[in-house]
């Protein structure tokens, strides 16, 4: 989690993607998006490039072991949306091999 959070905070897409397994898959239930490592990599570069306009608050690790990483955070976006986001990462051979997210709209004034 420490390497993950550091790469996120530094908006270092290359360091972040070093943590991602070649067989990676992603499912975003809140946005109806599914994809493989290639699509996820493009999204990471795009979002980290917009880091000044996407605000992440109260990011925390709920649970981590050698198989899983579960985190929760609040995100606000340039279009005025704010969401509470739960991320469940699965690990394989020390790398993140899958991600499922769920997002709940929240009032931005809450953040």
Tags for this model:
49% strand, single chain, globular, alpha+beta, 6 strands, six-stranded mixed beta sheet, 111 residues, 23% helix
Question: Could you provide a short overview of the structure?
Answer:
The protein has 111 residues and is an alpha+beta fold. The chain has 3 helices and 6 strands; from the N terminus they run H-H-E-E-H-E-E-E-E.
Description:
The longest helix is centred in the middle third of the chain and has 13 residues, at 37-49. It is built from 3 helices and 6 strands; from the N terminus they run ααββαββββ. A hairpin with a 2-residue loop joins strand 5 and strand 6 (95-105). It is globular, with a radius of gyration of 13 Å. It has 111 residues and is of the alpha+beta class. The chain has helices at 2-9, 13-17, 37-49; strands at residues 20-28, 33-36, 55-64, 68-76, 82-92, 95-105. It is 23% helix and 49% strand. The model has no long low-confidence stretch (mean pLDDT 91). A 6-stranded mixed sheet has the order 2-1-6-5-4-3.
Largest sheet, in brief, is: 6 strands, mixed
Instruction: Please tell me the overall pLDDT.
Output: 91
Beta-strand proportion: over 45%
- pLDDT < 50 stretches: none
First-residue to last-residue Cα separation: 23 Å
What sort of overall outline do the alpha carbons produce when their principal axes are compared? Answer: globular
Radius of gyration: 13 Å
- Major sheet strand order: 2-1-6-5-4-3
- State the helicity in percent bands: 10-25%
Helical segment count: 3
Order of helices and strands: HHEEHEEEE
Question: How many extended strands?
Answer: 6
Structural class: alpha+beta
